Amino acid sequence: MIAANRPAASALARVTEAGAVAAARAMGHGDGKHADSLAVDAMRTALDQVGLAGRIVIGEGERDEAPMLFIGETVGPETGTPFDIAVDPLEGTNLVAGGLPNAVATMAIAERGGLLNAPDTYMDKLIVGPPAAGRVSLDYPVRENLQIIADVLRRGIADLTVVVLDRPRHETLIEEIRTAGARIKLISDGDLTAAVSVAVAGTADHAVMGIGGAPEGVLAAAALRCLGGEIQARFKPRDEADRQRLAGMGVADAEERIFRTEDLASGNQLAVAITGVTDGDLLRGVRFFGGGARTHSLVMDLPSSVIRFVDSIQILDRANLGPVRLGPT
Q1: DSSP codes, 304-320
Q2: Quick check: helix, strand or coil at residue 193?
Q3: What is the predicted pLDDT for the residue at 79?
Q4: How confident is the model at residue 62, as a pLDDT?
Q5: In sequence order, what are the residues at sequence separation of 6 or more whose Cβ sits closer than 8 angstroms to the Cβ of residue 193?
């Protein structure tokens, strides 16, 4: 069905690049919703231009909650290959609003049924890189999981860094990590980027723990299928309405069952693209120059087992194009 998945992955990167460039225009303006709207409009246009089509299974909420890129929406040209799409046009709206690091635009695609269709609720997550994949468990105590990670990496727990969203709900978790002796990186937003970073050598992040968004969990699972890492997650609905939405989408035993990487992203034709909006630990943010912009993306393709860091030049105004700078920016 997707025999040329590599072109699909490249097309996907063009979509996230368009969203990142648009959102980056609003960096530091104090309006995250506006930045998100810019990313959505740009990505919608790019989907038509590159010929990617399908239905949104992970988006910005259901139709009554999000007027743009909502769950169940059909996007792209009518004649395109019908993918399932998971999208976060701007992960880190507050980060862009404040000119802070680690905001990204991201999208994943798979064959129909290849991405879990789940509502915009919460998940309790445990995310590790390839060496610890298949060894840890969301049911184990924090210290036990940390010891497993330390052992497979041949280091002490004190040498590990655990990424946790800085939220009041994590007070007990943070204390358990500190008691075990590991280091902690508290982040205000951006747990998708953190999830990917633990599976990329050289980032010095070794695990992600705690409760975060379910959409980010599915996107993380798609990336981790490509990178060889692992996510384990258990849904944490906020209220009865969330439980009804989960049931309505056919997600059984959501609060008891541990969903593993392959449960969240089961597809065999997965492709993922993540483009930096602001500078971060994993990707550089958008750089503007006369008549153009430079973007930095991570593009992953499961069938070909190829992972690319892509440095691209976007020509936005050829009439006023300045010199294109080569090398690091």
Answers
A1: TTEEEEEEEEEES-GGG
A2: helix
A3: 66
A4: 55
A5: 91, 92, 102, 104, 274, 280, 281, 282, 283
Residue type, 60: E
Please report where in the chains the tokens 């072109």 appear, as a residue: 7
* CA–CA gap between residue 101 and residue 304 (Å, rounded): 31
Q: What is the pTM of this model?
A: 0.91
Distance (Å, whole) CA 224 – CA 87: 16
DSSP state letter for 130? G
Q: b vs e for 48-73, b when ≥16 Cβ sit within 10 Å of the residue's Cβ?
A: eebebbbbbbbbbebeeebebbbbeb
The dihedral region occupied by 99, where left means phi > 0, alpha psi between -120 and 50, and beta the remainder, is left
Please check whether residue 196 is in contact with residue 208, taking contact to mean a CB–CB distance below 8 angstroms.
Answer: no
Residue entry with tokens 């506006």: 34
Q: What pLDDT, in 10s, does the model give residues 112-135?
A: 999 998 788 899 999 999 999 999
Structural Rg of the chain based on CA atoms: 19
Read off the tokens for 191: 């747990």
Measure Cα distances from 21 to 6, 148, 300 in Å: 23, 40, 20
CB-CB neighbours of 317 under 10 Å: 10
Report yes or no: 212 and 123 within 8 Å, Cβ to Cβ: yes
Q: What is the DSSP string of 255-300?
A: TTSPEEHHHH---SS-EEEEEESS--SSS---EEETTEEEEEEEEE
Q: Which residues are CB-neighbours of 47 under 8 A, at least 6 positions away? A: 15, 53, 75, 76
Based on DSSP, count helices (H) and strands (E) in the chain, helices before strands: 9, 14
